[in-house]
Amino acid sequence: MGLITGGVILLATNGTNSRILVFSEDLFFIYLLPPIIFNAGFQVKKKQFFRNFMTIILFGAVGTMISFVIITLGAMGLFKKLDVGPLELGDYLAIGSIFSATDSVCTLQVLNQDETPLLYSLVFGEGVVNDATSVVLFNAIENLDIGHFDALVLLNFIGNFFYLFITSTILGVATGLLSAYIIKKLCFARHSTDREVSIMMLMAYLSYMLSMLLDLSGILTVFFCGIVMSHYTWHNVTESSRVTTKHTFATLSFIAENFLFLYVGMDALDIEKWKLASSSPKKPIALSAIILGLVMVGRAAFVFPLSFLSNLSKKEARPKISFKQQVIIWWAGLMRGAVSIALTYNKFTASGHTEVRVNAHDHQHSHCCSVQHNGFWFAD
């Protein structure tokens, strides 16, 4: 859809004005991401999710770390041979965290929650925890003192990571419980569909905004807020509110996802980026091939060993992850989506804002921006 829209705009403007919609990470993180993640938490089948919780955390958190290490080390070793410009250690670490953010949206469209409950809950759960882990990792790297890197800095980094992970989850659960309490106890909020739906939506958004204000992971917070709300708040509202909330959240999520695809597809047809890339086509293609290879290796390096570990720890009655399912889980995480794009823009543009045309391609302000940017684009 995005590519078709971008193509139509290109034809309509004779290839001149391709920058009608420009990707803005602020818009993405504040307006588009929360409804998608919240709805994911709200609709998840909780029994399956918590039954496989340890495996999901293994894949989503430990797996992302393994993938991050492999991509970072691989990029450090292979990018130097390509002469892509002056990249520092912080840049390599950022690249590792950006490309360890999977996007399992398309796989979830194919899998059926009722036919393959184990596979669906693993792919879905890992996708959400992985996105949150990648964003937390990225934020931790941004605050890292690379100039004085030693064991203490590394320990501080790991401590910061776990602190963000745990506090974000607690905040989401607390907000969800608070919304249930407000709807159950306060008279103005009860038995009015409009007010009940509004309170649920506003409380969900409040959890996300609070999390962002406190520099925590908004994704994790709003996801767990969604889970708690569907378990407690949803059962305290009237029947009409239940139907309304379910459809409202699903609709908002669907609109946000489509808007994202439109956004990315149109941005991918930005003629100026292609002009920059075509001046030396070999480099972006080589970069893309390296990153794609590293993503595949990084993914395989944790899916198969961690599945083996997970199967060992499972009781006889529990279904194990078959080899065929392991291959699907490996394949499901090879896509890189909007979170990767937003983080890339955040790191590799001058002021973090790509609305200013010069920022997207400026050599002076943003080292390693032009060719890498296009390299990333091909990879994406």
Q: How would a textbook summarize the main sheet?
A: none
What is the overall number of helices?
Answer: 17
What are the segments in which pLDDT stays under 50 over at least 5 consecutive residues?
Answer: 351-380
Q: What is the number of E strands?
A: 0
Mean pLDDT: 78
Give the SSE string. HHHHHHHHHHHHHHHHH
Structure description:
This is Cation/H+ exchanger transmembrane domain-containing protein. It is a multi-pass membrane protein. The chain crosses the membrane at residues 28-44, 56-80, 161-183, 204-229, 249-266, 286-308, 328-345. One of its GO terms (cellular component) is plasma membrane. It catalyses: K(+)(in) + H(+)(out) = K(+)(out) + H(+)(in); Na(+)(in) + H(+)(out) = Na(+)(out) + H(+)(in). This protein is mainly α and 380 residues long. It has 17 helices and no strands. The protein has helices at 2-12, 25-43, 46-51, 53-82, 89-98, 105-110, 117-142, 151-185, 193-213, 218-231, 239-268, 271-278, 282-313, 323-332, 338-348, 357-361, 370-379. Residues 351-380 have low confidence and may be disordered.
Main features:
380 residues; mainly alpha; disordered C terminus
Topology:
Elements: H1 2-12, H2 25-43, H3 46-51, H4 53-82, H5 89-98, H6 105-110, H7 117-142, H8 151-185, H9 193-213, H10 218-231, H11 239-268, H12 271-278, H13 282-313, H14 323-332, H15 338-348, H16 357-361, H17 370-379
Helix pairs in contact: 1-11, 2-9, 2-10, 2-11, 4-5, 4-7, 4-13, 5-7, 5-15, 7-8, 7-10, 8-9, 8-10, 9-10, 9-11, 12-17, 13-14, 13-17
